[in-house]
């Protein structure tokens, strides 16, 4: 597929068009479908996602991740990412990236800026163990989400966790955790804080 094709914007329309190319319903060759914007596999609304595939758009803004490949000649294909929304036609700026979090993380964050403005100030989970433990402990979970704006949890607001390493990829939602887990940089003034101080946050 070459040249500019008039395709409706928005994650749902992009994904539909992508499958039309893949299923040979357009004049473009099916193997070129990856060059059309589509929902990154495993992200909401995309292939391999077990979050659910409702035909009706959600009643609130819902983040997802779009990607496409761009042929670059000898260097192989370049991956590009941008944030998308399952409820409206919003699309974020394009980020060049790779399979290891580069580009994709920025795009997922753009989508959260669209859907949950201010998410960066949500209370973080500070240890890797607590990423698993807090959602399974009723009182700790209640303490965490009490600091979220009203209605956000039901709309799939993210869990924010301090990242383990640079460019740790954000984890997409799934049936067991219907929200992104966003991995953010630990603030500089928290670097000396020991994990045992975690209780002070709650
Ligand atoms: Zn939206």
UniProtKB/TrEMBL annotation:
Annotated Basic and acidic residues bias: 178-196
Annotated InterPro entries: DUF6349 (IPR045930)
Superkingdom of the organism of origin: Bacteria
Region feature Disordered, mapped onto this chain: 59-78, 172-202
A Pfam family this chain is assigned to: DUF6349
Name used for this protein in its record: Uncharacterized protein
Organism: Streptomyces nanshensis
């Amino acid at each position: 597929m070459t040249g500019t094709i008039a395709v409706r914007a928005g994650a749902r329309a992009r994904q539909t068009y992508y499958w039309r190319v893949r299923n040979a319903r357009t004049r473009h060759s099916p193997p070129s479908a990856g060059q059309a914007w589509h929902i990154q596999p495993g992200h909401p609304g995309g292939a391999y996602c077990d979050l659910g595939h409702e035909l009706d758009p959600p009643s609130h803004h819902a983040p997802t991740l779009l990607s496409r490949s761009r042929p670059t000649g000898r260097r192989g294909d370049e991956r590009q990412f941008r944030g998308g929304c399952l409820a409206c036609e919003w699309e974020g700026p394009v980020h060049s990236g790779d399979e290891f979090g580069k580009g994709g993380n920025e795009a997922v964050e753009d989508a959260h800026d669209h859907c949950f403005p201010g998410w960066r100030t949500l209370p973080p989970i500070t240890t890797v163990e607590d990423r698993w433990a807090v959602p399974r402990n009723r009182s700790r979970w209640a303490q965490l989400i009490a600091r979220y704006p009203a209605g956000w949890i039901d709309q799939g607001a993210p869990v924010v966790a301090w990242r383990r390493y640079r460019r740790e990829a954000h984890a997409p939602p799934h049936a067991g955790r219907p929200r992104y887990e966003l991995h953010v940089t630990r603030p500089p003034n928290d670097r000396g804080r020991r994990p045992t101080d975690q209780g002070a946050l709650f």
